[in-house]
Structure formats: C-alpha cells, structure tokens
Amino acid sequence: MKTLSGIALVIALVSALLGFLFLRDSISPTYCNFSREAVKLYSPDRAFVVENIVRPIETGNRLFLRNAIDSKGILICVYLRSVDVLWSKDSKAFAVNDWGGSNFAEAYLYRKAGEHFALSPLNIRDALLSSDLDAEANKLISNDDHNYVFIEKWDGSDRLIVRATGHFYEAPNNVEYTYRYRFFLRTGRFERLSRSTEESL
C-alpha cells in the first residue's frame, strides 16, 4: 500500500513538473527590460536568445543575440542605462529601445535574413524622419533637447506601434509633444495614430 502511495506521489510530482514546463513555454514572454541583471530572453520559437552581460557601469553592459543551440552569437549593442527587447511573435524580428540618457531614447529594429539576423538594424527615428512627415512633426521629433522615440509594442508580426515624445524650450514657451505611429515592416510606411502638442509659459 505504501509502495503504491509512493508511486502515485511520484507520478503526481512528475505531472505537475511537466505541466509547469508546458505552461512556462506556452506563456513565454516576448518582452524584457535589461539593466543591471544577467538575464536572458528567448525568442518565441526558442531558437534564439538575447543575453545581457553585465559590465562595470563606466564601460557599459553588453547585449548579445545567440543561437540557442550552439550559443554562437553577435553583439547587438553596448548600453549604459537600460534597454527593452521586444520579440515579434513569429520570431523573425525583434526591437530594441535604448534608454541611453535622461533626455533621449532610440529604437532599433533587427530582422531575420534567411537563418540569421542582419547585423545592421533599422534606426526607427531615422526612418520616421525620412518618411513623409508634415513640417511640424518633423521639427518637433528632430529637436535636440528632450527627445524620445521608442517602440510601445508589436501590432501583429509585421507592424510596430511607435511613440515619439519629448519637450523643449522655444522662447517664450515650453513645448511638449507626443505622436503615435503604426510602422509597417513590409513597406516601411508610418501611419499616424494620434497627435498631441502643448505650449506653456
């Protein structure tokens, strides 16, 4: 009787462990903020992993993209403060928000080319400013005071929601602005979703 109870307990524990592993993989996160912790973020298909290598603050942390099978990898970026990584659900691309300073943020898109990822990312700010923006949006988003361009989230596997926000002084007013766009990866087109600006003394 005790033997049967022991076997039943083992079976129950194994089932619980397998259930946990299945649940973990089924809700595998596609977003992570990296800063001062040595953490990893796998692609949804588990074929690639973004790994954070912590270094002394003065030299900057390293973010690597590695093949999950043989651990071969490439350096994505060196950063000083923190970065966000957002995987697309089809594992064919990921975005990086680099919160490089108190007055700016940059966003980059890495795409898969064949079996590997292209080494040269798309700078989202540059792509936005080179698109058909109106004169006001171009002026605001290209200001060199407090200026943040970052990826909010994926909208499907081939679209990104981009936010451009910031503020600066233009005598006699303080100017604040926020734009939201949908970026289409296949065509490189930006669709404006919302706009807000405010001036105050």
- SSE order: HEEEEEEEEEEHHEEEE
The CA-CA distance between the termini, in Å, is: 82 Å
Secondary structure class reads alpha+beta
Helix content range: 10-25%
What overall geometry do the principal axes of the alpha carbons give?
Answer: globular
Mean pLDDT: 85
How is the biggest beta sheet arranged?
10 strands, mixed
Name the beta content range.
Answer: over 45%
Q: How large is the count of helical segments?
A: 3
Query: How many strand elements?
Result: 14
Description:
The chain has 201 residues and is α+β, with helices and mostly antiparallel strands. The chain has one domain. Helix content is 19%, strand content 50%. The chain has helices at residues 2-26, 124-129, 135-141; strands spanning 31-34, 40-42, 48-53, 61-67, 73-79, 82-87, 93-101, 104-113, 116-117, 122-123, 146-154, 159-170, 173-184, 189-200. Strands 1, 6, 7, 8, 9, 10, 11, 12, 13 and 14 form a 10-stranded mixed beta sheet that branches.
